């Protein structure tokens, strides 16, 4: 018995009980001591385990991808105010250099460039003039300075952000010797993300390269100073080159000489139909051609698309025929000039017949200008889009038939210029109303009245920007309604 009790819970028994003469109170003391010891061991084990868990979590957190971590930086409740740095002070305090590869078409790149200006200013880093996308569907090899007045861009923003045309020699050599740190910043992030995650990387690497620029900033929850800088970059600093400006003004002048004009951004183009999978009005051969095109483009992720279902929910661009019916229902004068701001309409003139019958004065830049005027712009889709952008801004009415980047950014720019009329066609409603009109359920007067009633508040008038917390893709785009830069809504 003495041998068996020699050790108890790792503690020598004879030291606990003072020998082998067991009495009740000494046994009780032994049990109490054992209990305290067990509790001590349990506490030590718990503390050690907790510490290990904390370390594991810390390691895991440090290796999380940016896509996962951005969830913490999409909250509107936590924002960081940008430092007030201007002029000489800004030039003397430089945290590094930001290189940017823009992606998408002209207007997608335009918005991305404005975001990069705001981000660079916020982090007090030097922005290198962004590189434009020349690998997208349009395959336009134009550089920044071929579309935008680069010197004007740099000078207009000199008090807010330092912009250089190229990396300084020292940083260029550093990049040549070492690997350039490239990354795609997460989409729809707030300034906390750039301050806490991106800025330390720039300070560490000195030069950082963003491989994407579109939708890198949230629509909402951004400091007003940052929002206003996005506007300044977009509406004041990004001026087109003199050749584009001159030709755009010439088109507007030709149109103005003949009276009011409406710009119709008719997105019934081959690339848009193939991408969206919308085939209303197409024959079997055309549907096959569009489907093959979609499957051939690796960056278009969605391949199998139900065109009928998508059209019913308003996710397809309107056809020329549907557009003509909508404009007529809204009492647009048939004598109004309708300028088509788009590329080649899929199906050619055959598809345009209903629109031309309703509006005989339908024109496009190719019919208004001499062939020689457009020669420098041919095979440069972004420069052609820049001409349409200019004409769209100056039109009496702007009507997009789809919710693409040009439609949204032109709408916002027209708001900025004084809430110029922009008719945002309600595609889902129109598809249903047109169906009822065609099958005889609605008379023309009933159809027209329904269209006018439902579009009364869709004319580009002042309105608060729609916010949908947690769903940035579904809420109203900042550049379509930059309310922080507009007169206050009373």
UniProtKB/TrEMBL annotation:
The alphabetized list of GO BP terms reads: fucose metabolic process
Taxonomically, the superkingdom here is Eukaryota
Question: What InterPro entries does this protein's entry cite?
Answer: FucosylTrfase_pln, GDP-Fuc_O-FucTrfase
Q: How does it sit in the membrane?
A: Single-pass type II membrane protein
Which terms are listed as keywords in the entry? Carbohydrate metabolism, Fucose metabolism, Glycoprotein, Glycosyltransferase, Membrane, Signal-anchor, Transferase, Transmembrane, Transmembrane helix
Cellular component GO terms held in the UniProt record: cytoplasm; membrane
Q: In which pathway does it act?
A: Glycan metabolism
The transmembrane residues are: 42-61
- Molecular-function GO terms, alphabetical: glycosyltransferase activity
Question: Where does it live in the cell?
Answer: Membrane
Q: Which family does it belong to?
A: Belongs to the glycosyltransferase GT106 family.
Q: What protein am I looking at? A: O-fucosyltransferase family protein
């Amino acid at each position: 018995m003495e041998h068996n009790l020699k050790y108890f819970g790792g503690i020598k028994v004879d030291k606990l009980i003072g020998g082998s003469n067991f009495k009740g109170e000494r046994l009780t003391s032994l049990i109490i001591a054992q209990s305290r010891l067990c509790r001590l061991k349990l506490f030590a084990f718990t503390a050690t385990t907790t510490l290990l868990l904390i370390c594991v979590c810390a390691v895991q957190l440090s290796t999380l991808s940016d896509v996962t971590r951005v969830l913490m930086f999409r909250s509107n409740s936590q924002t960081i105010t940008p430092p007030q740095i201007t002029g000489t002070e800004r030039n003397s305090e430089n945290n590094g250099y930001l290189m940017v590869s823009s992606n998408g078409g002209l207007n997608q790149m335009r918005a991305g460039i404005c975001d990069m200006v705001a981000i660079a200013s916020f982090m007090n880093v030097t922005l290198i003039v962004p590189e434009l996308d020349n690998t997208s569907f349009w395959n336009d090899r134009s550089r920044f300075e071929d579309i935008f007045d680069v010197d004007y861009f740099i000078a207009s923003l000199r008090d807010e952000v330092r912009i250089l045309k190229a990396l300084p020699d020292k940083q260029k050599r550093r990049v040549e010797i070492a690997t350039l740190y490239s990354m795609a910043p997460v989409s729809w992030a707030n300034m906390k993300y750039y301050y806490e995650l991106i800025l330390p990387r720039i300070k560490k690497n000195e030069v950082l390269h963003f491989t994407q620029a579109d939708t890198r900033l949230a629509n909402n929850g951004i400091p007003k100073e940052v929002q206003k800088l996005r506007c300044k970059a977009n509406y004041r600093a990004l001026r087109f080159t003199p050749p584009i400006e001159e030709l755009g003004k010439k088109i507007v002048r030709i149109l103005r000489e003949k009276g009011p004009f409406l710009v119709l951004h008719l997105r019934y183009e081959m690339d848009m139909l193939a991408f969206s999978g919308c085939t209303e009005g197409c024959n079997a051969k055309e549907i096959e051609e569009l489907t093959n095109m979609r499957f051939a483009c690796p960056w278009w992720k969605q391949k199998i698309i139900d065109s009928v279902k998508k059209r019913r929910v308003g996710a397809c661009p309107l056809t020329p025929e549907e557009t003509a019916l909508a404009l007529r229902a809204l009492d647009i004068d048939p004598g109004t000039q309708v300028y088509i701001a788009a590329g080649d309409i899929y199906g050619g003139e055959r598809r345009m017949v209903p629109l031309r019958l309703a509006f005989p004065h339908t024109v496009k830049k190719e019919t208004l200008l001499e062939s020689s005027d457009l020669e420098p712009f041919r095979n440069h889709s972004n420069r052609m889009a820049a001409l349409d952008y200019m004409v769209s801004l100056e039109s009496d009415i702007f009507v997009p038939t789809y919710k693409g980047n040009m439609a949204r950014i032109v709408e916002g720019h027209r708001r900025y210029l004084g809430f110029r009329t922009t008719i945002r066609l309600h595609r889902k409603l129109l598809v249903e109303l047109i169906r009822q009109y065609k099958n005889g359920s609605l008379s023309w007067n009933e159809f027209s009245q329904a269209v006018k009633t439902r579009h009364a508040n869709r004319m580009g008038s002042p309105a608060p920007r729609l916010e949908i917390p947690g769903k940035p893709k579904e809420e109203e785009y900042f550049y379509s309604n930059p309310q922080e830069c507009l007169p206050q809504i009373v």
